[in-house]
Amino acid sequence: MSITDSDVGTNELEKIYAEASLVGEDKGKELKFVWESDTRAFFEEQERNATGKRGNRWSLITIRLGINEESILDSSKRYEEHIVERVKNGHLPPLKQGILIWDETKVQSKIIWNSSNSSITGYAMSSSDMASLHDVYEGLDEEEESKKTEYVLQFLWRDISSEFDVIGPYFTISGTIEAQHLHTLVMKTLLVFNQFEFRVRCLLCDGASGNLALLKELCAHKKGKDISANFVSPFDGNKIHLVICPSHQVSIDFLTYYMFPLFLLKNMIAALYSSRDNGGTKSFVNEDSVHFGWETIEDVYKVDMKRAKNGQTRRVLKLKYSHIIRDSWTRLNVLPAKIMQQPYMLDAIQALADARPDEMKEHLATLEYLKACNKLFEDGILSHQKVDQLSSKVLKNIDEGYAFFKKWKDSFSNDANLREPTQKCFLAWQTWDLLELMYHGFKGFCHDFLTEHPHYYIIPVRISGSAIESVFSCLKFISGSNLSSVNYSSSITALATQREKTSNTNAENNYRNIPLSLK
Predict the structure, then answer these.
(1) Nearest to 348 by CA among 337, 363, 334, 359
(2) Residues 85 and 199 reside in one and the same domain
(3) What is the Cα–Cα distance from 437 to 59, expressed in whole angstroms?
(4) Confidence of residue 269 (pLDDT cuts 50, 70, 90)
Protein backbone atom coordinates (compact mmCIF):
# COMPACT_ATOMS: atom_id res chain seq x y z
CA MET A 1 0.00 0.00 0.00
CA SER A 2 1.29 3.44 -0.91
CA ILE A 3 0.41 6.92 0.31
CA THR A 4 -0.85 7.69 -3.20
CA ASP A 5 -3.57 5.04 -2.85
CA SER A 6 -5.72 7.62 -1.06
CA ASP A 7 -6.91 11.00 -2.30
CA VAL A 8 -5.71 12.67 0.90
CA GLY A 9 -2.18 11.32 0.46
CA THR A 10 -2.09 12.30 -3.21
CA ASN A 11 -3.25 15.84 -2.43
CA GLU A 12 -0.63 16.23 0.32
CA LEU A 13 2.11 15.12 -2.07
CA GLU A 14 0.97 17.63 -4.67
CA LYS A 15 1.15 20.39 -2.03
CA ILE A 16 4.72 19.36 -1.21
CA TYR A 17 5.67 19.45 -4.90
CA ALA A 18 4.12 22.91 -5.25
CA GLU A 19 6.00 24.24 -2.21
CA ALA A 20 9.26 22.82 -3.57
CA SER A 21 8.66 24.59 -6.89
CA LEU A 22 8.57 27.90 -5.01
CA VAL A 23 12.16 27.30 -3.85
CA GLY A 24 13.44 26.54 -7.35
CA GLU A 25 11.94 26.14 -10.78
CA ASP A 26 12.83 22.47 -11.11
CA LYS A 27 12.72 21.49 -7.42
CA GLY A 28 9.16 20.23 -7.59
CA LYS A 29 9.96 18.02 -10.59
CA GLU A 30 13.13 16.71 -8.93
CA LEU A 31 11.29 15.91 -5.70
CA LYS A 32 8.55 14.11 -7.60
CA PHE A 33 11.14 12.11 -9.54
CA VAL A 34 12.90 11.07 -6.30
CA TRP A 35 9.61 10.05 -4.67
CA GLU A 36 8.48 7.99 -7.66
CA SER A 37 11.87 6.28 -8.11
CA ASP A 38 12.17 5.49 -4.38
CA THR A 39 8.62 4.15 -4.26
CA ARG A 40 9.23 1.97 -7.30
CA ALA A 41 12.52 0.66 -5.86
CA PHE A 42 10.85 -0.06 -2.49
CA PHE A 43 8.09 -2.22 -3.95
CA GLU A 44 10.54 -3.99 -6.27
CA GLU A 45 12.70 -4.88 -3.28
CA GLN A 46 9.67 -6.09 -1.31
CA GLU A 47 8.67 -8.35 -4.19
CA ARG A 48 12.23 -9.61 -4.67
CA ASN A 49 12.53 -10.57 -1.00
CA ALA A 50 8.97 -11.84 -0.55
CA THR A 51 10.18 -15.39 0.17
CA GLY A 52 11.59 -14.37 3.56
CA LYS A 53 14.65 -16.54 3.03
CA ARG A 54 17.86 -15.98 4.95
CA GLY A 55 19.70 -15.04 1.77
CA ASN A 56 17.50 -12.01 1.08
CA ARG A 57 19.31 -8.72 0.63
CA TRP A 58 17.87 -5.37 1.74
CA SER A 59 19.03 -1.86 0.93
CA LEU A 60 18.47 1.56 2.51
CA ILE A 61 15.32 1.87 0.39
CA THR A 62 13.74 -0.46 2.96
CA ILE A 63 16.00 -0.16 6.01
CA ARG A 64 15.90 3.50 7.05
CA LEU A 65 18.60 4.29 9.60
CA GLY A 66 17.36 6.52 12.38
CA ILE A 67 18.73 9.73 13.87
CA ASN A 68 18.30 10.59 17.52
CA GLU A 69 16.36 13.84 17.12
CA GLU A 70 15.94 14.21 20.89
CA SER A 71 19.71 14.51 21.26
CA ILE A 72 19.88 17.24 18.62
CA LEU A 73 16.91 19.01 20.23
CA ASP A 74 18.78 18.95 23.54
CA SER A 75 21.84 20.40 21.79
CA SER A 76 19.64 23.16 20.36
CA LYS A 77 18.44 24.08 23.85
CA ARG A 78 22.01 24.10 25.15
CA TYR A 79 22.99 26.33 22.24
CA GLU A 80 20.43 28.92 23.30
CA GLU A 81 21.99 28.91 26.78
CA HIS A 82 25.40 29.16 25.12
CA ILE A 83 24.30 32.30 23.24
CA VAL A 84 23.18 33.96 26.49
CA GLU A 85 26.48 33.09 28.18
CA ARG A 86 28.57 34.42 25.29
CA VAL A 87 26.68 37.72 25.17
CA LYS A 88 26.95 38.02 28.96
CA ASN A 89 30.74 37.71 28.64
CA GLY A 90 30.87 40.54 26.10
CA HIS A 91 31.14 38.49 22.88
CA LEU A 92 29.08 38.82 19.74
CA PRO A 93 26.13 36.40 19.76
CA PRO A 94 26.91 33.10 17.98
CA LEU A 95 25.15 32.75 14.64
CA LYS A 96 24.18 29.06 14.87
CA GLN A 97 25.93 28.57 11.53
CA GLY A 98 28.53 25.87 11.27
CA ILE A 99 30.42 23.16 9.46
CA LEU A 100 29.09 19.63 9.06
CA ILE A 101 31.97 17.15 9.12
CA TRP A 102 31.80 13.44 8.49
CA ASP A 103 34.28 10.61 8.46
CA GLU A 104 34.24 6.84 8.27
CA THR A 105 36.18 4.82 10.86
CA LYS A 106 36.77 1.07 11.06
CA VAL A 107 35.86 -0.62 14.36
CA GLN A 108 37.00 -4.23 13.82
CA SER A 109 33.57 -5.85 13.47
CA LYS A 110 32.75 -6.16 17.17
CA ILE A 111 31.11 -2.94 18.42
CA ILE A 112 27.31 -2.68 18.46
CA TRP A 113 26.17 0.94 18.17
CA ASN A 114 22.56 1.97 18.71
CA SER A 115 21.81 4.63 16.09
CA SER A 116 18.42 5.46 17.64
CA ASN A 117 19.84 6.89 20.86
CA SER A 118 23.53 7.36 20.00
CA SER A 119 24.87 4.96 22.63
CA ILE A 120 26.86 1.74 22.89
CA THR A 121 24.41 -0.95 24.00
CA GLY A 122 26.67 -3.99 24.15
CA TYR A 123 29.19 -6.11 22.32
CA ALA A 124 28.75 -9.09 20.02
CA MET A 125 31.05 -12.01 19.23
CA SER A 126 30.53 -15.14 17.21
CA SER A 127 30.62 -18.41 19.14
CA SER A 128 34.05 -19.25 17.74
CA ASP A 129 35.69 -15.92 18.61
CA MET A 130 36.31 -16.51 22.31
CA ALA A 131 34.16 -19.12 24.03
CA SER A 132 35.54 -18.29 27.47
CA LEU A 133 33.84 -14.88 27.38
CA HIS A 134 30.29 -16.10 26.72
CA ASP A 135 29.36 -15.24 30.29
CA VAL A 136 30.37 -11.61 29.67
CA TYR A 137 29.56 -10.97 26.04
CA GLU A 138 26.42 -11.83 24.14
CA GLY A 139 26.87 -14.76 21.78
CA LEU A 140 25.57 -14.80 18.21
CA ASP A 141 24.30 -17.91 16.50
CA GLU A 142 26.44 -18.54 13.41
CA GLU A 143 23.34 -19.65 11.47
CA GLU A 144 21.74 -16.25 11.95
CA GLU A 145 24.42 -14.67 9.74
CA SER A 146 24.18 -11.49 11.78
CA LYS A 147 26.14 -8.66 10.22
CA LYS A 148 28.60 -7.09 12.62
CA THR A 149 29.53 -3.45 12.39
CA GLU A 150 32.80 -2.88 10.52
CA TYR A 151 32.58 0.88 9.98
CA VAL A 152 30.94 3.77 11.77
CA LEU A 153 30.05 6.87 9.76
CA GLN A 154 30.54 9.79 12.16
CA PHE A 155 29.07 13.29 11.88
CA LEU A 156 29.95 16.44 13.79
CA TRP A 157 28.49 19.96 13.55
CA ARG A 158 31.02 22.67 14.50
CA ASP A 159 29.95 26.25 15.11
CA ILE A 160 31.83 28.89 13.10
CA SER A 161 31.32 31.79 15.51
CA SER A 162 32.03 30.00 18.82
CA GLU A 163 33.49 26.82 20.30
CA PHE A 164 30.16 24.94 20.37
CA ASP A 165 30.05 21.44 18.79
CA VAL A 166 27.24 18.96 18.24
CA ILE A 167 28.57 15.38 18.15
CA GLY A 168 26.64 12.87 16.08
CA PRO A 169 24.72 11.27 14.59
CA TYR A 170 26.50 7.96 13.99
CA PHE A 171 25.57 5.25 11.50
CA THR A 172 26.86 1.68 11.68
CA ILE A 173 27.82 -0.02 8.43
CA SER A 174 28.66 -3.68 7.81
CA GLY A 175 31.10 -2.82 5.01
CA THR A 176 32.52 0.04 2.98
CA ILE A 177 29.70 2.48 2.34
CA GLU A 178 28.47 2.96 -1.22
CA ALA A 179 27.89 6.37 -2.79
CA GLN A 180 24.10 6.08 -2.97
CA HIS A 181 23.89 5.09 0.71
CA LEU A 182 26.23 7.92 1.67
CA HIS A 183 24.01 10.34 -0.24
CA THR A 184 20.99 9.18 1.75
CA LEU A 185 22.75 9.52 5.12
CA VAL A 186 24.20 12.95 4.36
CA MET A 187 20.87 14.30 3.15
CA LYS A 188 19.03 12.88 6.19
CA THR A 189 21.57 14.49 8.51
CA LEU A 190 21.36 17.81 6.67
CA LEU A 191 17.58 17.73 6.94
CA VAL A 192 17.55 17.04 10.68
CA PHE A 193 20.09 19.76 11.49
CA ASN A 194 18.16 22.17 9.31
CA GLN A 195 14.92 21.34 11.14
CA PHE A 196 16.53 22.35 14.45
CA GLU A 197 17.99 25.53 12.87
CA PHE A 198 21.61 24.40 13.01
CA ARG A 199 22.59 26.17 9.79
CA VAL A 200 25.43 24.51 7.91
CA ARG A 201 27.77 26.74 5.92
CA CYS A 202 30.34 24.05 5.21
CA LEU A 203 30.34 20.30 4.57
CA LEU A 204 33.71 18.73 5.34
CA CYS A 205 34.97 15.26 4.40
CA ASP A 206 38.01 13.51 2.99
CA GLY A 207 38.66 12.60 -0.63
CA ALA A 208 37.54 8.97 -0.50
CA SER A 209 36.02 7.64 -3.70
CA GLY A 210 32.52 7.47 -2.20
CA ASN A 211 32.73 11.10 -1.11
CA LEU A 212 33.95 12.20 -4.54
CA ALA A 213 31.13 10.30 -6.21
CA LEU A 214 28.70 12.13 -3.93
CA LEU A 215 30.29 15.48 -4.85
CA LYS A 216 29.93 14.79 -8.53
CA GLU A 217 26.30 13.84 -8.04
CA LEU A 218 25.56 16.99 -6.04
CA CYS A 219 27.61 19.50 -8.00
CA ALA A 220 27.90 18.38 -11.62
CA HIS A 221 26.51 20.92 -14.08
CA LYS A 222 23.51 19.73 -16.05
CA LYS A 223 24.96 20.88 -19.38
CA GLY A 224 28.52 19.69 -18.99
CA LYS A 225 31.04 17.58 -17.13
CA ASP A 226 32.51 20.35 -14.99
CA ILE A 227 32.20 20.26 -11.22
CA SER A 228 31.48 23.46 -9.32
CA ALA A 229 32.52 24.11 -5.73
CA ASN A 230 28.96 24.68 -4.53
CA PHE A 231 25.40 23.47 -4.88
CA VAL A 232 21.96 24.63 -3.74
CA SER A 233 20.51 23.12 -0.56
CA PRO A 234 17.33 21.15 -1.32
CA PHE A 235 15.92 22.19 2.07
CA ASP A 236 16.22 25.98 2.15
CA GLY A 237 17.46 27.04 -1.30
CA ASN A 238 20.77 28.43 -0.01
CA LYS A 239 24.08 27.91 -1.77
CA ILE A 240 26.30 25.18 -0.33
CA HIS A 241 30.02 25.63 -0.98
CA LEU A 242 32.33 22.63 -1.37
CA VAL A 243 35.84 22.31 0.05
CA ILE A 244 38.30 19.40 0.60
CA CYS A 245 39.78 18.94 4.08
CA PRO A 246 43.43 20.06 4.05
CA SER A 247 44.49 18.09 7.13
CA HIS A 248 42.56 14.88 6.59
CA GLN A 249 42.60 15.33 2.86
CA VAL A 250 43.32 13.35 1.01
CA SER A 251 37.45 17.60 3.24
CA ILE A 252 23.87 26.80 5.60
CA ASP A 253 21.72 26.67 6.30
CA PHE A 254 23.97 23.93 4.94
CA LEU A 255 26.30 25.98 2.81
CA THR A 256 29.85 24.66 2.28
CA TYR A 257 31.38 21.32 1.37
CA TYR A 258 35.00 21.42 2.54
CA MET A 259 37.24 18.44 1.76
CA PHE A 260 39.80 17.67 4.46
CA PRO A 261 42.86 19.98 3.98
CA LEU A 262 45.42 17.80 5.79
CA PHE A 263 44.33 14.95 3.62
CA LEU A 264 45.19 17.09 0.61
CA LEU A 265 48.50 18.16 2.13
CA LYS A 266 49.43 14.50 2.51
CA ASN A 267 48.49 13.94 -1.13
CA MET A 268 50.67 16.85 -2.26
CA ILE A 269 53.73 15.58 -0.39
CA ALA A 270 53.01 12.00 -1.46
CA ALA A 271 52.99 13.27 -5.05
CA LEU A 272 56.47 14.67 -4.53
CA TYR A 273 57.54 11.34 -3.04
CA SER A 274 56.27 9.58 -6.17
CA SER A 275 58.90 11.50 -8.18
CA ARG A 276 61.79 9.58 -6.54
CA ASP A 277 64.36 8.00 -8.84
CA ASN A 278 63.87 4.41 -7.69
CA GLY A 279 60.31 3.14 -8.03
CA GLY A 280 58.69 6.51 -8.61
CA THR A 281 55.72 6.95 -10.94
CA LYS A 282 56.27 10.66 -11.64
CA SER A 283 58.94 12.72 -13.37
CA PHE A 284 58.10 16.32 -12.51
CA VAL A 285 59.12 19.05 -14.94
CA ASN A 286 58.41 22.74 -14.30
CA GLU A 287 57.55 25.42 -16.86
CA ASP A 288 61.29 26.01 -17.45
CA SER A 289 61.83 22.33 -18.35
CA VAL A 290 63.74 21.72 -15.10
CA HIS A 291 63.34 18.25 -13.58
CA PHE A 292 62.79 18.26 -9.83
CA GLY A 293 61.46 16.02 -7.10
CA TRP A 294 62.20 13.82 -4.11
CA GLU A 295 65.94 13.67 -4.70
CA THR A 296 66.26 17.11 -3.08
CA ILE A 297 64.61 15.81 0.11
CA GLU A 298 66.99 12.84 0.17
CA ASP A 299 69.97 15.19 -0.20
CA VAL A 300 68.75 17.35 2.70
CA TYR A 301 68.58 14.26 4.90
CA LYS A 302 72.08 13.10 3.87
CA VAL A 303 73.54 16.55 4.62
CA ASP A 304 71.79 16.53 8.00
CA MET A 305 73.32 13.15 8.85
CA LYS A 306 76.80 14.46 7.99
CA ARG A 307 76.22 17.52 10.19
CA ALA A 308 75.14 15.30 13.09
CA LYS A 309 78.18 13.06 12.61
CA ASN A 310 80.45 16.11 12.79
CA GLY A 311 78.81 17.30 15.98
CA GLN A 312 76.74 20.03 14.33
CA THR A 313 73.04 20.70 14.87
CA ARG A 314 70.73 19.20 12.27
CA ARG A 315 68.70 21.65 10.20
CA VAL A 316 65.56 19.47 10.14
CA LEU A 317 65.48 17.75 13.52
CA LYS A 318 62.31 15.68 13.07
CA LEU A 319 63.23 14.28 9.66
CA LYS A 320 63.70 10.50 9.93
CA TYR A 321 65.11 7.75 7.75
CA SER A 322 61.65 6.16 7.47
CA HIS A 323 60.29 9.45 6.07
CA ILE A 324 62.86 9.43 3.26
CA ILE A 325 63.79 5.92 2.22
CA ARG A 326 61.07 3.49 3.28
CA ASP A 327 57.66 3.34 1.67
CA SER A 328 55.85 5.09 4.50
CA TRP A 329 53.67 7.06 2.09
CA THR A 330 51.20 4.26 1.53
CA ARG A 331 49.56 5.42 4.78
CA LEU A 332 50.04 9.10 3.94
CA ASN A 333 51.42 9.98 7.37
CA VAL A 334 50.60 13.45 8.65
CA LEU A 335 53.91 14.10 10.45
CA PRO A 336 56.26 13.82 7.45
CA ALA A 337 53.79 15.77 5.32
CA LYS A 338 53.81 18.59 7.86
CA ILE A 339 57.61 18.53 8.15
CA MET A 340 58.21 18.84 4.40
CA GLN A 341 56.64 22.31 4.11
CA GLN A 342 57.85 23.85 7.39
CA PRO A 343 60.14 26.95 7.27
CA TYR A 344 63.14 25.01 8.63
CA MET A 345 62.86 22.51 5.75
CA LEU A 346 62.60 25.36 3.23
CA ASP A 347 65.70 26.99 4.75
CA ALA A 348 67.58 23.68 4.55
CA ILE A 349 66.76 23.31 0.84
CA GLN A 350 67.85 26.90 0.17
CA ALA A 351 71.16 26.23 1.93
CA LEU A 352 71.59 23.04 -0.12
CA ALA A 353 70.97 24.94 -3.38
CA ASP A 354 73.50 27.63 -2.40
CA ALA A 355 76.11 24.98 -1.59
CA ARG A 356 75.65 23.12 -4.90
CA PRO A 357 75.56 25.58 -7.83
CA ASP A 358 75.50 22.75 -10.40
CA GLU A 359 72.24 21.40 -8.94
CA MET A 360 70.77 24.76 -7.95
CA LYS A 361 67.94 24.81 -10.53
CA GLU A 362 66.64 21.37 -9.51
CA HIS A 363 66.74 22.17 -5.79
CA LEU A 364 65.15 25.60 -6.25
CA ALA A 365 62.32 24.05 -8.30
CA THR A 366 61.58 21.66 -5.42
CA LEU A 367 61.81 24.61 -3.04
CA GLU A 368 59.17 26.53 -5.00
CA TYR A 369 56.87 23.49 -4.91
CA LEU A 370 57.14 23.21 -1.13
CA LYS A 371 56.81 26.98 -0.66
CA ALA A 372 53.51 26.81 -2.54
CA CYS A 373 52.40 23.98 -0.24
CA ASN A 374 53.43 26.09 2.77
CA LYS A 375 51.35 29.04 1.59
CA LEU A 376 48.35 26.85 0.78
CA PHE A 377 48.35 24.86 4.00
CA GLU A 378 50.61 25.96 6.89
CA ASP A 379 50.08 29.71 6.28
CA GLY A 380 46.71 29.26 4.60
CA ILE A 381 43.93 26.76 5.18
CA LEU A 382 45.62 25.29 8.29
CA SER A 383 46.49 28.73 9.69
CA HIS A 384 45.57 29.81 13.22
CA GLN A 385 45.24 33.45 12.15
CA LYS A 386 41.88 35.19 11.95
CA VAL A 387 40.29 35.77 8.56
CA ASP A 388 38.11 38.83 9.15
CA GLN A 389 38.19 40.45 5.71
CA LEU A 390 38.60 39.39 2.10
CA SER A 391 41.99 41.14 1.92
CA SER A 392 43.32 38.94 4.75
CA LYS A 393 46.94 37.76 4.56
CA VAL A 394 45.74 34.16 4.90
CA LEU A 395 43.58 34.42 1.77
CA LYS A 396 46.46 36.07 -0.12
CA ASN A 397 48.73 33.17 0.86
CA ILE A 398 46.16 30.68 -0.42
CA ASP A 399 45.90 32.61 -3.70
CA GLU A 400 49.69 32.61 -4.15
CA GLY A 401 50.01 28.90 -3.36
CA TYR A 402 47.22 27.93 -5.74
CA ALA A 403 48.60 30.23 -8.45
CA PHE A 404 51.86 28.23 -8.48
CA PHE A 405 50.11 24.95 -9.30
CA LYS A 406 47.72 26.62 -11.75
CA LYS A 407 50.64 28.20 -13.62
CA TRP A 408 52.48 24.87 -13.61
CA LYS A 409 49.48 23.07 -15.10
CA ASP A 410 48.86 25.80 -17.70
CA SER A 411 52.48 25.55 -18.88
CA PHE A 412 51.56 22.12 -20.33
CA SER A 413 48.33 23.31 -21.96
CA ASN A 414 49.64 22.48 -25.44
CA ASP A 415 51.09 19.12 -24.43
CA ALA A 416 48.81 16.30 -25.59
CA ASN A 417 50.45 13.90 -23.12
CA LEU A 418 49.16 15.95 -20.17
CA ARG A 419 45.62 14.81 -20.92
CA GLU A 420 46.60 11.18 -20.47
CA PRO A 421 45.53 9.59 -17.15
CA THR A 422 49.06 8.19 -16.76
CA GLN A 423 50.90 11.48 -17.40
CA LYS A 424 54.07 11.85 -15.29
CA CYS A 425 55.00 15.53 -15.50
CA PHE A 426 52.22 16.92 -13.27
CA LEU A 427 50.12 15.99 -10.24
CA ALA A 428 47.69 13.08 -10.47
CA TRP A 429 44.39 14.36 -11.83
CA GLN A 430 42.47 13.32 -8.73
CA THR A 431 44.87 15.33 -6.56
CA TRP A 432 44.45 18.34 -8.84
CA ASP A 433 40.64 18.04 -8.72
CA LEU A 434 40.72 17.91 -4.92
CA LEU A 435 43.05 20.91 -4.81
CA GLU A 436 40.70 22.93 -7.00
CA LEU A 437 37.68 21.97 -4.90
CA MET A 438 39.47 22.91 -1.69
CA TYR A 439 40.65 26.27 -3.06
CA HIS A 440 37.42 27.42 -4.71
CA GLY A 441 35.23 26.03 -1.94
CA PHE A 442 37.14 27.73 0.87
CA LYS A 443 37.39 31.02 -1.01
CA GLY A 444 33.67 30.95 -1.82
CA PHE A 445 32.82 30.12 1.78
CA CYS A 446 34.94 33.01 3.12
CA HIS A 447 33.47 35.43 0.57
CA ASP A 448 29.85 34.61 1.43
CA PHE A 449 30.31 34.42 5.20
CA LEU A 450 32.38 37.61 5.57
CA THR A 451 30.08 39.51 3.21
CA GLU A 452 26.99 38.48 5.19
CA HIS A 453 28.62 38.92 8.62
CA PRO A 454 31.35 41.62 8.39
CA HIS A 455 31.83 41.81 12.18
CA TYR A 456 32.68 38.13 12.55
CA TYR A 457 35.79 36.17 11.58
CA ILE A 458 36.89 32.67 10.56
CA ILE A 459 39.69 30.58 12.08
CA PRO A 460 40.78 28.34 9.16
CA VAL A 461 42.32 25.58 11.28
CA ARG A 462 38.93 24.93 12.90
CA ILE A 463 37.65 23.86 9.48
CA SER A 464 39.56 20.61 9.64
CA GLY A 465 38.85 16.90 9.68
CA SER A 466 40.72 16.56 12.97
CA ALA A 467 37.61 18.07 14.59
CA ILE A 468 35.85 14.72 14.31
CA GLU A 469 38.11 12.99 16.84
CA SER A 470 35.11 11.35 18.43
CA VAL A 471 34.91 8.46 20.84
CA PHE A 472 35.54 5.86 18.14
CA SER A 473 38.59 7.66 16.72
CA CYS A 474 40.08 8.13 20.21
CA LEU A 475 39.39 4.55 21.25
CA LYS A 476 40.72 3.24 17.96
CA PHE A 477 43.98 5.16 18.51
CA ILE A 478 44.37 3.92 22.10
CA SER A 479 43.70 0.32 21.05
CA GLY A 480 46.34 0.43 18.32
CA SER A 481 43.84 0.70 15.44
CA ASN A 482 42.20 -2.61 16.43
CA LEU A 483 39.15 -1.59 18.45
CA SER A 484 37.03 -4.61 19.40
CA SER A 485 34.84 -5.92 22.20
CA VAL A 486 37.91 -7.55 23.74
CA ASN A 487 39.90 -4.32 24.24
CA TYR A 488 37.01 -1.82 24.42
CA SER A 489 36.87 -1.79 28.23
CA SER A 490 40.60 -1.14 28.71
CA SER A 491 40.58 1.48 25.94
CA ILE A 492 37.71 3.48 27.44
CA THR A 493 39.43 3.35 30.86
CA ALA A 494 42.68 4.64 29.37
CA LEU A 495 40.83 7.43 27.56
CA ALA A 496 38.97 8.48 30.72
CA THR A 497 42.23 8.53 32.70
CA GLN A 498 43.95 10.57 30.01
CA ARG A 499 41.19 13.19 30.00
CA GLU A 500 41.31 13.53 33.80
CA LYS A 501 44.91 14.71 33.63
CA THR A 502 45.49 18.47 33.68
CA SER A 503 48.45 20.11 32.01
CA ASN A 504 50.57 22.96 33.34
CA THR A 505 49.63 26.00 31.28
CA ASN A 506 52.24 28.39 32.70
CA ALA A 507 54.19 28.22 29.47
CA GLU A 508 51.19 29.63 27.64
CA ASN A 509 49.94 32.25 30.10
CA ASN A 510 52.47 34.95 30.98
CA TYR A 511 55.14 32.45 31.99
CA ARG A 512 57.96 34.81 31.06
CA ASN A 513 56.31 37.73 32.85
CA ILE A 514 56.30 35.98 36.25
CA PRO A 515 59.43 36.90 38.30
CA LEU A 516 61.41 34.02 39.77
CA SER A 517 61.90 34.09 43.53
CA LEU A 518 65.38 32.70 44.20
CA LYS A 519 66.87 32.24 47.68
Answers:
(1) 363
(2) yes
(3) 31
(4) confident
Q: Sign (positive/negative) of CA torsion 239, 240, 242, 246? A: positive
**What is the span of the domain harbouring residue 162?**
69-227
Instruction: Tell me the mean pLDDT in the region 96-122.
Output: 64
| Tens digit of each residue's pLDDT (9 = 90 or more) over 124-145 | 444 444 444 334 434 444 444 4
Pairing state of beta strands 239-244 and 256-259?
parallel
Q: 187 to each of 94, 96, 127, 404, 493, how far by Cα in Å?
A: 25, 19, 38, 36, 35
Give this prediction's pTM: 0.71
Could you say which of 441, 463, 485 is where a domain stops? 463
Shared-domain flag, residues 418 and 285: yes
**Structural domain contains residue 514:** no
**In which region does residue 159 sit, left (phi positive, over 0), alpha (psi from -120 to 50) or beta (all else)?**
beta
Residues 444 and 306 in one domain: yes
- List helix spans (H) across 199-316: 209-219, 261-273, 295-309
Percent of the chain with pLDDT over 90: 23
CB 29 within 8 A of CB 39: no
Give the chain's domain count.
3
Instruction: Verify that 219 and 309 share a domain, yes or no.
Output: no
Residues 186 and 281 in one domain: no
Number of H helices and E strands in the chain, helices first, is 15, 10
pLDDT, residue 10, reads 80
90 shares its domain with 44:
no
CA 499 – CA 482 distance, rounded (Å): 21
In one-letter notation, the amino acid at residue 235 is: F
Nearest to 245 by CA among 266, 259, 230, 265: 259
For residue 169, cis peptide bond before it (omega within 30 degrees of 0): yes
Give me the torsion for CA of 205, 427, 334, 484, rounded to 10°: 50
Quick one: which H or E segment has residue 490? helix 488-500
Q: Average pLDDT in the 462-480 region? A: 67
| Claim to verify: residue 39 and residue 106 sit in the same structural domain | no
pLDDT in tens, 137-189: 344 444 444 455 677 788 888 899 998 888 778 887 777 777 778 888 888 89
Of the candidates 445, 519, 500, 415, the one whose C-alpha atom is nearest the C-alpha of residue 259 is 445
How many residues comprise the chain?
A: 519
Provide the β-strand partners of residue 159.
98
